[in-house]
């Protein structure tokens, strides 16, 4: 049997929420999470296919202001539902950094530099077709001799990848069914 895309004539409205953090995660972590989400919802040849409309950040912030939602209250379920409705979102996703830190110190006992890092992320994902607002949480930590694989950015990348795999956003964008 061949696979065919389910046809929906109207383009999907995709909303990428701002990364919310109360930690000192840094701009590089925020930028990484934003770019990872953009890559996840990227539709090749979208200018030709017109399968999706990506809602501009200005429009998202305007809707948030009109609904009196700020970044601290954005990820409350009722606010996400109100925002999705106001923006007529088909797909809405965003990351929240729950906790993140990286400490480097010298261990005189082992005569080496030690790296201690931790990241905890939540991925919020709304799919209008499933009428579902889901949250996925994951974390990672490292404490050992300094290694690039234990840095905050490396842990964030691994945690982000696991969350995106759990959410399966691409399957919502490219639904295939046997014909």
Written account of the structure:
With 179 residues, the chain is α/β, with parallel strands linked by helices. The chain has six helices and eight strands, in the order βββααβααβββααβ. It has helices spanning 27-41, 46-49, 57-66, 77-86, 152-167, 169-173, and strands at residues 3-5, 12-16, 20-21, 52-54, 91-107, 112-127, 132-145, 176-178. The strands form two sheets. Strands 2, 3, 4, 5, 6 and 7 form a six-stranded mixed β-sheet that branches. The protein has a two-stranded antiparallel sheet with strand order 1-8. A hairpin with a 4-residue loop joins β6 (112-127) and β7. α1 (27-41) packs parallel to α5. Mean pLDDT is 88; it is low at 1-6.
Question: Main traits of this protein?
Answer:
34% helix, six-stranded mixed β-sheet, 179 residues
Q: Which sheet architecture does the biggest sheet show?
A: 6 strands, mixed
What are the segments in which pLDDT stays under 50 over at least 5 consecutive residues? 1-6
Number of continuous helical runs = 6
Quaternary: single chain
Distance between the termini: 6 Å
Number of strands: 8
The radius of gyration is: 19 Å
Shape: elongated
SSE string: EEEHHEHHEEEHHE
Structural class: alpha/beta
Strand content: 35-45%
The whole-number mean of residue pLDDT values reads 88
Helix proportion: 25-40%
């Amino acid at each position: 049997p061949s696979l065919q895309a389910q046809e929906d004539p109207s383009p999907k409205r995709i909303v990428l929420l701002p990364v919310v953090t109360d930690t000192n995660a840094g701009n590089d972590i925020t930028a990484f999470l934003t770019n990872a989400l953009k890559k996840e919802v990227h539709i090749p040849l979208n200018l030709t296919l017109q399968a999706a409309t990506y809602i501009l950040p200005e429009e998202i912030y305007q809707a948030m202001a009109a609904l009196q939602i700020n970044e601290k209250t954005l990820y409350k379920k009722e606010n996400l539902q109100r925002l999705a409705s106001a923006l007529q979102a088909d797909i809405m996703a965003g990351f929240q950094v729950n906790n993140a830190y990286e400490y480097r110190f010298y261990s005189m006992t082992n005569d080496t530099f030690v790296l201690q890092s931790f990241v905890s992320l939540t991925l919020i994902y709304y799919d209008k077709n499933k009428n579902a607002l889901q949250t996925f949480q994951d974390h990672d930590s490292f404490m050992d001799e300094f290694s690039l694989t234990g840095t905050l950015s490396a842990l964030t990348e691994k945690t982000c990848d696991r969350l995106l795999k759990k959410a399966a956003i691409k399957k919502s964008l490219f639904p295939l069914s046997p014909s």
